[in-house]
Amino acid sequence: MNRIDRCFADLKAKGKKALIPYITGGDPKPSLTVSLMHTLVESGADIIEIGVPFSDPMADGPVIQLACERALLHNTSLTDIFGMIKEFRLTDAQTPVVLMGYLNPVEVMGYDVFTTRAAEAGIDGVLLVDMPPEESENVVDLFESHDLKMIFLMAPTTPDQRMELIARHSSGYLYYVSVKGVTGSAALDVDDVDSNLARIRSKTDLPICVGFGISNGETAAAVSKISEGVIVGSALVKCIANNSDEPEVIKANLAVLMKEMRLAMDA
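Given the sequence above, the corresponding structure tokens read:
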């Protein structure tokens, strides 16, 4: 069983919801990423999303755009990210890791090479922001053969017919974008999210995890009541940006925010 499937099954049995942090690989420098991943797990993470730094992160707001810039200053590449996850797997064989990024670096590497190396590194799922489900039809079997879940985004504006298409191509979990905007947006309407999740659930049995606009324990708890998982990115990346030259301060601040969310979600 893929680690993502196992994670959601275990959480369901315990009556808990997934806490899924996102950080950009290589931010603030490549040598810190693995240590930050372990800090996230120790502080309550169930699944980790690792961003592949990209020069044109169109779905991301200023906070994650700047994280990509910091990582790219160190020439952090997709190959480097594979190496980080391999290192993480030396001491953590259980926590699911999802690679999140954009299509261009994958196409440059080639799908055969990418899926092989991703599986060898210990990656469990891939979310390519700018890969529509129609374009995944030619590679879905390749991803499945390497036990890589293909995770897709849904938005408040996604019509029912397209929801059905996305649901058919998705595996692992669905990432519901809670607001009409980029990462870091603050206008989270939980009632609106709840209404849209009901529409999605009529079309799929996959876990639905909600991201964008979640920044503290209060919002994490509210979203966890109506979804199977909470995804937090920009709030954590801000902790990194605010103390980029102080690794121990970064870890301490990440731990505080993660534990706040974990406790609020479990309360």
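Residues 63 and 238 are 7 Å apart (CA to CA). Try to locate this feature in the token string yourself.
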